[in-house]
Amino acid sequence: GKKSKNPALWWVDGAGGEVKWSFEELGVLSRRVANVLSDACDLHQGDRVILILPRVPEWWLVNVACMRTGAILIPGTQQLTAKDILHRLQKSKAKCVITDDSVAPAVDSVGAECQSLKFKMLVSEGHREGWLNFKDLL
């Protein structure tokens, strides 16, 4: 059959930059992210992942990757305070949190109080001590 010309994901940022992924590209990328979650974060079916990102393509990759691995995705807004994040981490017993530079300090401020939290992943060009870098691992 004919391949659809419609993208699976078409994202445009505030400056007009675009990301367009076909269904095949989304599949390949989400499998790579699933491998990162399984290997680097040692996540298995039923493990919980808290994802706090703005509307960026990586949000969708992690979402689909969690479906592939069987991990339970717990989405959160960037408006969460450190207290909110602590509550969610403790109640969910999340093993991993994935966020960006704007939320990472709040996670760091409460992370020691969460026994189940084993992995912190940063979606950023930069690096942060104690955090895995999503883009490097991908």
UniProtKB/TrEMBL annotation:
GO function term, MF aspect, one: medium-chain fatty acid-CoA ligase activity
Broad class of enzyme this protein falls into: ligase
GO BP term, example: acyl-CoA metabolic process
A cellular component term, taken from the record's GO annotations: mitochondrial matrix
One Pfam entry name: AMP-binding
Domain of life of the native organism: Eukaryota
Catalytic activity: a medium-chain fatty acid + ATP + CoA = a medium-chain fatty acyl-CoA + AMP + diphosphate
Keywords from the named record: ATP-binding, Fatty acid metabolism, Ligase, Lipid metabolism, Nucleotide-binding
Entry EC number(s): 6.2.1.2
Segments forming domain AMP-dependent synthetase/ligase: 5-123
Family: Belongs to the ATP-dependent AMP-binding enzyme family.
UniProt protein name: medium-chain acyl-CoA ligase
Organism field: Baryphthengus martii
Gene name of the encoded protein: Acsm3_2
